[in-house]
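Quick check before the chapter quiz. The format below is the same one you will see on the exam, so make sure you can read both the input and the output lines.
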Amino acid sequence: MNNPFTLSFGKKPLQYVSRISQTNTIIESFSAEEPSNQIYLITGVRGSGKTVMMTSIANDMRKKEEWIVVELNPVRDLLQSLAAKLYSLPEMHTHFIQAKLDFSILGLGVSVENAAPVTDIESAIELMLAEIHGRNKRLLITIDEVTNCEYVRVFASSFQIFLRQEYPVFLLMTGLYDNVYNLQNEDALTFLYRAPKMILEPLNYTAVRKKYMDIFGLDMEAAGEMTGLTKGYPFAFQVLGYLCWENRDSKTLEEILPEYDQYLEEYVYDKIWSELSDLDRKILVEMSESGETRVKKIREKTKMTSELFSVYRERLKRKGVLDTSKYGEVSFILPRFAEFVMTRMI
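Here is the expected output.
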């Protein structure tokens, strides 16, 4: 049997722990007769399973006869890409032609006799959405890893118009928290600020432990030790499982740890560290050295005012590094990140 775990980002692994509650919330909201939300933003740290969750939802919706699912690339012209993909849909292409929709000037299809050519890309999409609506279908658009770039801003502004015109169009986007936060705070895109965000928290420990028990034939204690090393971080779940599978007959869990740390460092932690400011790092170094979790003590040792520390605590929370859920305390949310920070000090 091949290794059931994967080190590839974005690809749905053979073994993964699903986020049942959050996934069902989005699917049920989109599928409602009168949807309360037509946009969801999935956000979290690198390796938290954003793309896998979005892909799982998209695949589920594709199975439903009334749904059309289109995936867009955020580094390309999103409106042009959407129009091209909608026009090429096998189930809709004939209907567009029968409706005498001439998009030839936009580079879509050929000219239609006795039809005025459409010259604006947004108008072309509106006409296609009207046809989709007329066929009692719904359109789900997915965009992975959005950033606050021109293509995304223009697309989001157009999408707001589609919503106001009550087209059956739905949007599911993923992105790092900082990127989503910056996009939502654009003056022209305040409607995105009201869109629900699914912030991906650590995986359910019981579910992770059960996976390890089933795959490796472990008892609850041994599987629990592995689970603790992942802290519920999806990429760590995959890495540790992958290494344990590859070394199941030759190395103990303790002997695997150096390689485990190396994968986390090279695949994720180095990138996170490179994006931190000096004051971000100062806080993390103090926490790693002292093991302190109390906000007051960390603030005193770093000689930061309460106001300044609050700003950087929020920054580190948004970057998915610190857990701030416990009043007056902070802790590392990523597995073995304190150990990683200590290596940066050498």
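If your answer matched, good. The chain has a mean pLDDT of 90.
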